Amino acid sequence: MSQFLKRVLLSLLAVVVLLLLTAKLWLGEEFETSAKVLLNTVAGYSVASPSQQQVDQRFTVPPGFRVTVYASDLGKVRMLEMSPAGDLLASQPRKGTVTILGRDNNRDGLPDNRRVLLAGLTRPHGLELVDGWLYVAESNQIGRIAFDAQSGQVQGDYQVLIKGLSDSGNHWTKSLRAGDDGWLYVSSGSSCNVCVEEDEQRAAISRFKLADQNPRLELFASGLRNSVGMDWSPWEQALYATDNGRDLLGDDYPPCELNRIVKGGFYGWPYINGYAELDPDLGQGREDLLNDAISPVHGFRAHNAPLGMRFISAGDWPAQFHKTALVALHGSWNRSSRDGYKVVSLHWQPNGKVIERDFMSGFLRSDMAQPQGESVIGRPVDIAQGEDGAVYISDDYSGTVFKVVYSGESEPLAASYGANAKTAVQVKVSGASSLELQQQGAAVFKHYHCASCHDARYAQANRPVRPLENLASRYTAEGLQDFLLSPTPPMPLYPLSEQQRIALAAYLLNR
Q: Which run of H or of E encompasses 32?
């Protein structure tokens, strides 16, 4: 082994050890699980796929839906693509392969077969099927190969279309999404946490024409730190993308984002975070960009890492899922209390607002009263949907693909959906006095670290404070409860039950 390579490996090991020691000091008794999550992020550490019994015990989905293990032992499986014939393609960057899970013709709830479709690739990630071609985004190039949907076989030679893509640093993955406009869109993450990139195609979405014989990438949108998930809204044909906010500014800042992507759009990074807030490291002197930077249409909680997204073809699903996208929250590895580790649904409202609700939770055990076992059993990555409406979710922590099907409502959905999230704070409202309600609301306020945004005594340095003043003159109890169900950004949507919203509103109106 060369001395240079030894130095590189030793440096990498030192960084990992430093991060683990930091996690030990920061997280205390949660260290073991958090260390595993960190190792999953930097080194591909994984755990065993859960059994169906564990799935039934751990996961919560809306009434009428059921989760099953569709495929297991897939290693660090990442992006998914469904073929027109029902085969599910999955990228495995660390293996350098694309695997195909054969369609379930015998209807036993499992793929009829699995096999490696492509091998020897350089960290393949994004996959897209377009007009009989399978496009693959490797870390350093984009290629394609003819794909016959009926047989599930590739044909001919693999063709490299775009060469020499930068894949150094933090976010080397590339994701793909084709548009009806004849272009293939390519997202590429930043090389760093926060820096000024030399390559304009990093921290950006680029595109090239599918019909070109010798395609060239052109920049489409910039200022996107790490937009892993992209999809087109079916009702307006607009491109949306998730984005991961920067690190090292505390537990709750900046928010992760969902952005509506437009040609030539600038989305802030590395100078502006979230909703027009200058970055404390690189924002000084760049006030001129505040009017240019496009704010997100929806903010996720900081560091919960939204990755893959998919607009759902609702079909036989309940009406609440029309104009809805599912987003995989990979989960935080760098905050004092873990967040994410679930799939959420985003619901577009007539007034343009986006409401976030839990869709599939249980990857993270947040209540110690739940069945014992690993605190974290999975980290969702990407989402695909079959012609029959079934949804498939990849998990690169346990190497699993889950299948979620809707078979009918077991109880009125509107009465239960959004109020079934497992939370660590239990609130009892029935028969509670006003004082008891306020005490219960104070516990919720403390649990979600609300003071870090609303009380200057607890806010982090360079963090704007939004005092909670004169709420009683602006809200009724019912009005404030409705606000908590659909908060105005940059406040994230917390998984509060109805009882928690009642108690928190009582506390806020009387504090």
A: helix 31-43
Range of the domain at 459: 434-510
Averaged pLDDT of the chain: 86
462/410 same-domain check: no
The dihedral built from the CA positions of residue 403, 331, 421 and 424, taken in this order, carries a sign that is: positive
Q: What is the pTM of this model?
A: 0.77
Output 332-337 pairs: Cβ under 8 A, ≥24 positions apart: 332/302, 332/303, 332/304, 332/305, 333/34, 333/37, 333/38, 333/40, 333/41, 333/303, 334/38, 334/247, 334/303, 335/251, 335/252, 335/302, 335/303, 336/26, 336/27, 336/251, 337/251, 337/449
- Among 371, 390, 416, give the residue marking a domain's end: 416
According to DSSP, the β-strands at 88-92 and 97-101 are antiparallel
Name the most confidently modeled range: 198-212, 396-410, 458-472. Answer: 198-212
Tally of domains in the chain: 3
pLDDT tens digits along 153-176: 999 999 999 999 999 999 999 999
CATH number at residue 286: 2.120.10.30
Pair 71, 19 in one domain: no
